[in-house]
Amino acid sequence: DTAVSQTPKYLVTQMGNDKSIKCEQNLGHDTMYWYKQDSKKFLKIMFSYNNKELIINETVPNRFSPKSPDKAHLNLHINSLELGDSAVYFCASSQGGGSGANVLTFGAGSRLTVL
Amino acid sequence: GQNIDQPTEMTATEGAIVQINCTYQTSGFNGLFWYQQHAGEAPTFLSYNVLDGLEEKGRFSSFLSRSKGYSYLLLKELQMKDSASYLCAAMDSNYQLIWGAGTKLIIKP
């Protein structure tokens, strides 16, 4: 069974559309994240939720809205897609807390291409 | 500001040893992580150091010097499957991870 699963794996869409990426983890972790990895391979944190509560909200456009219906799910909705949103989006989870407890388990990634 | 530096790309030969360096500057420090990422795949956890010294785990070892803001990942007996990007990430005082851009390691036969 996949520990962190995200769908879809590939997403090709037109500028201006709205799309969602879903993420689920079956590890019993308390904390979930969304990361963006651009063409230069930097991993940038976007959001972090702990037990359904938002704890990190980096400077991302408010076109990006995360939703966590329960601690096993963290979905990402993107409105009015722009060319610069093209990237690979990774969902991740961790046990939470500080230090070594914060080993991240990543999903396989969702490659978004905006045309 | 907070920053992680690591080489963009390295090349090594199958069976050899390679050392990937990482320097970091963070506001506070709560540990240094190394992740491996094969092309088109998710990053996977390799190692965590919070105290100075060398941690050995099979063919992979990771070293930390907090006074120098420096870490390295040492890969021994290189195999073709070790071709991947290696990401260094430091955890700051707020337990947030600051990521490097990764070092792409190319293994040649």
Main sheet overview of chain A: 7 strands, mixed
How far the N terminus sits from the C terminus of chain B, by CA atoms, comes to 40 Å
Q: Percent of residues of chain A in helical segments?
A: under 10%
Mean pLDDT of chain B, to the nearest integer, reads 95
Q: Count the beta strands of chain B.
A: 11
SSE blueprint:
The complex is a heterodimer of chains A (115) and B (109).
Chain A lengths: L3 E4 L2 E4 L5 E7 L5 E7 L5 E8 L2 E5 L6 E7 L2 E6 L8 E8 L10 E2 L3 E5 L1
Parallel strand pairs in A: 2-11
Antiparallel strand pairs in A: 1-3, 3-8, 4-5, 4-9, 5-6, 7-8, 9-10, 9-11
Chain B lengths: L2 E3 L3 E5 L4 E8 L6 E6 L6 E6 L3 E5 L2 E6 L4 E6 L8 E8 L5 E3 L3 E6 L1
Parallel strand pairs in B: 2-11
Antiparallel strand pairs in B: 1-3, 3-8, 4-5, 4-9, 6-7, 7-8, 9-10, 9-11
Gist of the model:
The complex is a heterodimer of chains A (115) and B (109). Chain A is mainly beta and 115 residues long.
How is this structure best described in words?
The complex is a heterodimer of chains A (115) and B (109). Chain A has strands spanning 4-7, 10-13, 19-25, 31-37, 43-50, 53-57, 64-70, 73-78, 87-94, 105-106, 110-114. Chain A is mainly beta. In chain A, strands 2, 4, 5, 6, 9, 10 and 11 form a 7-stranded mixed beta sheet that branches. A 4-stranded antiparallel beta sheet of chain A has the order 1-3-8-7, with no helix packed on it. Chain A starts with a strand and ends with a strand. With 109 residues, chain B is mainly β. Chain B has strands at residues 3-5, 9-13, 18-25, 32-37, 44-49, 53-57, 60-65, 70-75, 84-91, 97-99, 103-108. In chain B, the strands form 2 sheets. In chain B, strands 2, 4, 5, 9, 10 and 11 form a 6-stranded mixed beta sheet that branches. Chain B is globular and about 40 Å long. The chains are: A mainly beta (115), B mainly beta (109). Chain A binds chain B through residues 40-45, 56, 90, 97-100, 102-109, and chain B through 30-31, 33, 35, 40-45, 48, 50, 85, 87, 89, 91, 95-97, 99, 101-102.
